[in-house]
């Protein structure tokens, strides 16, 4: 009887996080949700804004990134760009040293200390009220900064998260597009409830006075920075009109390494942000537990479901469940191998493979975090 309870708790927890919670979030957002209206601003209303980018070994894209920022539909005299190279060992520093533009300030840091330390140093240089964060390999839509700034019309808003579209080099689409759109849908509902959790580091903005320096070993800096702002009582909104594009890792190996490190960063964030589990946080506590905590511990729940199922498989009903689990895992492993070979298995197999790969990386991230030797130094993902 006890093993049956353990089995069902694990299964229901996974199902709740991935299926039931998004439905509840949608319903609650319709019933109780509301966020400040975003009103476009005329040129004379636009404030001075700073863009901050921490880079490491980005020789293939850093020049294009600067051009992209300078081409924004934003009064150039009001745009201030800060780029910090954190001990880059390729041609990044050479490229940045050649930049000669009054609106661009370059800082070449001698050692590779990590993104968090670089961001802390760059923010100390910023004087504007609004700061936009992005990555070196991101490309903003022409009006992206203008859209982000419009999100601060209400004084209650402390951070605005834009929408990132991912694509694969050469095909202009993202192989994980369905899951990505699913996540964007959830973010939009959470924003309506003032329960948005973190931001995407490729495109978000904050009020400068709300920035709190982050620890040097912080991995998911965007999540930590924005949650620090939420803790101060300010709203975090999701603005789908502020758009950016970014290329995903060109290989499953590179993408896997990135997911493992982010997974380790998630558990690091969990240990640092226990205050989010306080019911006094209202909708944000509900969203954090449902969307983040249960997701982060899904690989553990999957293991619990499998082994508890093994112990009660003598009962025909649970024997059927065990067979179903084995079939799903078998399909997932086969799908991963097919995808790695460049083949395209059926969509449902692709989904199972993605889910299995995602949670395998999370578990590896948990092991990495458990070693307690996380550093903030860069683990750059290769790009085409």
TrEMBL record:
Gene3D superfamilies: Spore Coat Polysaccharide Biosynthesis Protein SpsA, Chain A. Residues 50-194 form the Glycosyltransferase 2-like domain. It comes from the Bacteria. The chain crosses the membrane at residues 6-29, 293-312, 318-336, 348-369. InterPro entries: Glyco_trans_2-like, Nucleotide-diphossugar_trans. PANTHER family: POLY-BETA-1,6-N-ACETYL-D-GLUCOSAMINE SYNTHASE. Belongs to the glycosyltransferase 2 family. This is Glycosyltransferase family 2 protein. It comes from Thalassotalea mangrovi.
